[in-house]
Amino acid sequence: MDWKIELIFVPVTDVDRAKEFYTRIGFHADIDASPSQDVRFVQLTPPGSACSIAIGEGLGSDVPPGTLDVIQVVVADADAALAQLRAVGVDAEGVEELDWGRFVSFRDPDGNRWALQELVPYG
Q1: Sequence-separated (6 or more) residues with CB below 8 Å from residue 41
Q2: How far apart are CA 41 and CA 30, in angstroms?
Q3: Residues in Cβ contact with 96 at an 8 Å cutoff, skipping those fewer than 6 apart
Q4: What percent helix, strand, coil does the chain show, rounded to 5?
Q5: Distance, CA of 21 to CA of 110 (rounded, Å)
Q6: In the 8-state DSSP scheme, what is residue 58?
Q7: What is the band of 123 on the pLDDT scale with cuts at 50, 70, 90?
Q8: How many Cβ atoms sit within 10 Å of the Cβ of residue 32?
Q9: 30-87 residue pLDDT tens
Q10: Three-state DSSP class for 98?
Q11: What burial class does residue 85 get, using C-beta atoms within 10 Å of its C-beta: 0-12 exposed, 13-18 middle, 19+ buried?
């Protein structure tokens, strides 16, 4: 049986601000729905990803905004990813070279930390 991660909740304080940030860095806004007065569900997908993120209100998570330490995604080119982030005003940390990859990191407006990994041959 396959197990597929398809949605990760990212806790934020301001849904509109977070949605603007994620769409500015290239995520596609898939859904923005308010099925009731107390619930707002926004689903955003990074380009080329099979996994999306969810932000919103009333979604039942107790995770405080800004506390996700690392959400890691793979990119083809760390240098290009860094340039793209900086071009849209994101304060991204420049390429860190490690034996298992080249990394760029940044934080969303709430402080949730993302790591972008360019895979490199290991061994």
Answers
A1: 31, 32, 33, 34, 35, 54, 56, 59
A2: 10
A3: 102, 103, 104, 105
A4: 15, 40, 45
A5: 10
A6: S
A7: low
A8: 15
A9: 999 999 999 999 999 999 999 999 999 999 888 999 999 989 999 999 999 999 999 9
A10: strand
A11: buried
CA-to-CA distance for 18 and 98, rounded, in angstroms?
Answer: 30
Helices (H) and strands (E) in the chain, counts: 2, 8
Per-residue tokens: 87: 């071009």
Class of residue 84 by CB neighbours under 10 A (exposed 0-12, middle 13-18, buried 19+): middle
Contact of 100 with 121, CB cutoff 8 Å: no
Q: Quick check: 118 and 76 in contact, CB under 8 A? A: yes
Q: CA-to-CA distance for 65 and 110, rounded, in angstroms? A: 6
Amino acid, res. 98: L
Rounded CA-CA distance 43/32 in Å is: 7
| In the block, residue with structure tokens 């994620």 | 22
